[in-house]
Amino acid sequence: MIKEKRKTFPGLIITLLICFTACKDISSDSKQEETIAEEDKIIQYSDRFSYLLEYSVDSLAFPRSADDNGIIKKVPSKDWTSGFFPGTLWKIYQLTGDTKYKAKAKEWTTFIEKEKYNDRTHDMGFKVFCSFGNGFKITNNAAYKDIIIESAQTLSTRYNTTVGSIRSWDFNKEEWQFPVIIDNMMNLELLFEASNYSKDTTYYNMANQHARTTLKNHFRDNNSSFHVVDYDTITGDIRAKVTHQGFRNESSWARGQAWGLYGYAMAYRYTNNVEFLEQSKKIAAFLMDHNNLPEDAIPYWDFDAPNIPSEPRDASAAAVIASGMLELYEYTKDKKHLEFADKIITSLSSKKYVIQKESNVPFILSHSTGNWPKNDEINGPINYADYYFLEAVLRRKNLR
């Protein structure tokens, strides 16, 4: 966790009002529909948001994470996490209406444009859609839409028709031929939207087939997911199933389960494929009913980590789960999905997870775990936790 530095930065105190709602059960012969507010929760981030404005704009220094001493890990646009910081600024603007965040989001977003030609990565959605995608929805800037379509064209070059998937990683070629990771489900949104924007069904078809292939091969009988499935490029056969960032191959890496939950709810949004919706529901049940889920619903970095309850948590996984669970609730209207998302949002909004204002880092949440096997970014702030947390807050607010 970030050590507090006794220095106070001037800034705006942002107050977000989130109205948690729940639907009463109505008898079948009743025409009355009623929604009641169970709780009004005020979340105050004193100087947390405003410090994101104070962070110096630098095309080579997107803030990715911070260590225990408050040293910020800065990355260029090619890093898979670069889109989350501008995306966070776009979402703060949506929450607050403060145009300073909109202006700053535009500045940071501009630096990512060159990634539309980067064909060496599958993370086009994380980089381009979290930045330009949010920007287009807010500004309706036609140039942003063109960048999204060009990015989809670049991403499509990584699609293999024999495998029926988009290649994820290019490293470790001595071991893997065509690795596909569960995270890649998140990048399908870029392809689906590009298809809508361009009226080119090629992108839709690729995204749809990738989701089908992943559904067929990534999941175990208990609906947990492997991290990586490696395919033979000639036959399309499976060569290996591993969990690269988890405790062991057969364990359930928390953020991987979150990507699956969110990814299949999102895929259902675009395809209306009931199999995708059912898979998201099954993953939700796996998560909600797991014996190793902590009381506050913020998972350990791996559900099978060996030293639970002394293992690091992963707030980023929790944030993704909350946001995905809220979209799932929109389709199922199952109260348990809403209540679980509310529990996570409430926990992440507490002092345990929100970084206090004395810590001068451009992040909101702590206690995320990036890559435990490599001892990298453990139990600290990471930018994608902030992004999906704010997305969950927005989705919850919009359910009103």
What does this protein look like?
This protein is α+β, with helices and mostly antiparallel strands. It has a domain at 1-46 and 252-400: Glycosyltransferase (Alpha/alpha barrel), CATH 1.50.10.10. The protein is built from twelve helices and nine strands. The strands form four sheets. A three-stranded antiparallel beta sheet has the order 7-8-9, with no helix packed on it. Helix 4 crosses helix 6 and helix 11 (335-348) packs across helix 12. It is globular.
Short description:
Helix content is 43%, strand content 12%.
**Biggest sheet: strands, sense, closure?**
3 strands, antiparallel
How do the SSEs run, as a string of H and E?
A: EEHEEHHHHEEEHHEEHHHHH
Percent helix: 40-55%
Number of helices: 12
* Quaternary structure type: single chain
What's the CATH architecture name of the domain at 1-46 and 252-400?
Answer: Alpha/alpha barrel
Average pLDDT confidence is 90
CATH structural class of the domain at 1-46 and 252-400: Mainly Alpha
Name the structural class. Answer: alpha+beta
Spans of at least 5 consecutive residues with low confidence: 1-15, 17-43
Strand percent estimate: 5-15%
Radius of gyration: 20 Å
In spatial order, strands of the major sheet run: 7-8-9
User: Based on DSSP secondary structure assignment, what is the total number of beta strands?
Assistant: 9
- Label the overall shape: globular
CATH topology of the domain at 1-46 and 252-400: Glycosyltransferase
Distance between the termini: 34 Å
